Fold each of these.
Amino acid sequence: MSICDNFICDNISKNDAGHLTFGGLDTTILAAKHKTPLYLMDENKIRSNCRIYTDAFKKYFKEGSLVLYAGKANAFKYIYSIIMDENMGVDLVSSGEIYTAKAAGYNMENAFFHSNNKTADDIAFAMDCGVGYFVMDNVEEVLGVEAEAAKRGIVQKALLRITPGIDPHTYEAVATGKVDSKFGLAIETGQAEECTALTLQQSHIKVCGFHCHVGSEVFAEDVFERSAVVMLEFMADMKKKYGCDANILDLGGGYGVRYVHSDPYVDIDAKIKSVSETIRETCSRLDYEEPIIMMEPGRSIVADAGMTLYEVGMIKNIPGYKTYVSIDGGMSDNPRYALYGARYTCLNASRMNEDCNMTASIVGRCCESGDIIQENVEVPEATCRGDIIAVCTTGAYNYSMASNYNRIGRPPIVMLKDGEDKVVVRRETFEDMIALDL
Ligand SMILES: *Cc1c(COP(=O)(O)O)cnc(C)c1O
């Protein structure tokens, strides 16, 4: 590959010094200032990604429809304040995420609490925090929520999570909508109907709607349309049989993003328009009132708003085999290649005007052979110790999946906005690492 001048996202470029820029700032200067490894996030990109959804929702869906940010993609206080400012709801999956959103001042009325296994403590904590909606996954949860709500003398709003039986054709590890899944209640087996009937009988739960989420990194044509049809047929059936008047349909998250140049663009506005047309047609065919729509994007809100910077250390060429370029982070800050071979675009941020004429594996510093960020990366031959390697599109499922394996501290997150850089999550220190050790 020759000199790189075609970037994976429009917030990436290079400057006259031959350095990579992100959000308009020179990444090598940011690396020197904040040290590496370093997560960068581009606030303007996060906000513009939010607005693609919120604008489309205004155009195509019924009033009251709401975009929920799936916090598991990247959860820290500052991001919840952006999400609140963008008038979005949140999808939370644990008491820890609830705590974080609340600490950021997030209004819990618009919080939706997921998880296939909420403990009794989770249920009580979520109610203490005033979480708006429980997204209920199974019968035990329904009974647990009913008991806790009864004890408090409240009526808890809820959605029921349904598995529509749709295969999204994505990675096996992130497919969730098939009948054989640990998530939700299958329509096919009758469990969805059974649980709906049971929940409707509870006097301290209000069934406000139904939820499904078929998977992540969805590029296939009509996945959301097909799940919308199945869900609307189910909702109409529940209305006919049980008088269920729930009027929220939450279609989950999952639109894919571009990690490498061969990934397609997803035109989210066009996708949402098409989903809205399917919903309108289906509702009219079923003579069913059009519901309020929710979606739960995580990755497509934050992925391309993120970039990780590392410094190159050891370079090892094994003649006849390959070249290893070691960086000062790895699976501790980005486990996705180790987990499921996730692809990334990697660039030598220090040498953007040089030909990429050497193939190398970018590897981390953890004590695992599988600690690889990416294999078969084209980098300039002069790549050497001290260069800055940038991994693009790391805003989702990197920081949120990071660990301090090998007692390597988690990197800070620096938020970039209008030419300014601000630390919003500080670097994990040695003191942090022993803070729990008694
Ligand atoms: C993971 C998840 C999402 C977000 O998925 P993305 O691929 O990040 O958009 C939304 N809803 C549920 C229930 C999820 O599990």
Note: Residues 331 and 368 are 9 Å apart (CA to CA).
Amino acid sequence: MSKKASEAKSLYEFFEEFPDESRRQFFDVEKGISKRGFFRGAGLAATSGLLGLAIPYFSNFPRGIVPAAFAAEDVLIGKEGLILLNDRPINAETPAHLLDDAVTPTTRHFIRNNGLPPASMDASDWTFSIDGFVENPFTMSIEELRSNFEVVSMVLAIECGGNGRAFFDPPATGNQWTVGAVACSEWTGVRLADVLKLAGPKPSVVYTAHYGRDMHLSGKQGKLPISRGIPVSKAMTDNVLIAFAMNGSRMHEQNGLPLRLVVPGWPGSCSHKWLSRIQLRDQVHDGPKMTGTSYRVPRYPIAPGEKVPREDFEIIERMPVKSLITFPESNSAVERVVEVRGHAWSGDRTVNAVDVSIDFGASWLPAELDEPVNAGAWQNWRRTVDFPQSGYFEVWARATDSASEMQPFAINWNPKGYLNNTMHRVALRVA
Ligand SMILES: Nc1nc2c(c(=O)[nH]1)N[C@H]1C(S)=C(S)[C@@H](COP(=O)(O)O)O[C@H]1N2
Ligand SMILES: [Mo]
């Protein structure tokens, strides 16, 4: 391997690829746990109490894993203000007030991993293959994708199917996302539709299957953390991209560097990261996280806590209508007159109206709502509100989409905690 340890792009990669050097950098056998590493601003503050401590069982420390003392902050290098929900696999959400930008900066795009990111994310030797039920299977480098297909940039929203899971009662197991497993960055890449057309799907094709180079948590070679797919009709939509750049520059390691799918409006799990292969199938895909109850909901409404037979679950397709209040920040103090603002989206549809309430839903005020900058982008909205007096207020926001579907106040419960699109509320102290 020609790469030097100092070129490791993240702490993760450093520990994984250079187990001996990383151990030497972070563990001083005589002085104990140390922080002499070369990682700019890596989260010392939270771990400083541990610095210099002897490590009695040093010789047992597994090679290639990041010490827990550092994991919490250092895995988020290149991210700003994200809240880590889990560090193995890494899952981190963005507080609502940090999602205020019309286009989400790379530093604030959430992270949802099912496994371990690949050790190498080198764009220059990455390949992408398309095969299965196609006339013309092929493999291309990222450079070849760029030169063989039209390169487009689009602002596209990705929301995890489990966003909002934390608000389910009875609770659902899985990452306890509150509202911040959503983002809308600008992605640059080629259209999946163009790539499929060159491959020439056979008439029997109904579904895609997505494969990436991340690893299963068990570390077992060939065991996939996730492999999902979408109906070929969705894959042919012209805002589904195979992306190689994020916000006009390098993609973040945790967001799929160097190549990923972006399937706006559908569960984030369709947007495969570290993408290496798409297979076209003559039947619905059956990879990990595609079957059973994964990314599926009962096909009929059920009562909270109700048990549902497996065969009554169906695959989630479009995400439901939803909105987010990104200003003011919840639990902050504001003046009597304030501009409330945020975003709204509805998978495969547009949002027709956003209304806000400052009186716990008794009356609603229409917000000014922008058109999406392109199909698949969230829509920005704003509304100046005039609080009648000082005190405790809540602002509630409620979006209604082009099919007249409106965000509910009460939760539509389902066993795995998906699709929670209840209204967002922020608490304010009015001066
Ligand atoms: N290869 C791979 N792709 C993946 C995942 C993964 O674990 N591995 N997680 C999926 C899920 S569940 C979501 S919500 C999105 C999150 O994208 P982000 O981490 O860039 O925000 O990536 C999807 N693509
Ligand atoms: Mo997800």
Note: Residues 187 and 246 are 5 Å apart (CA to CA).
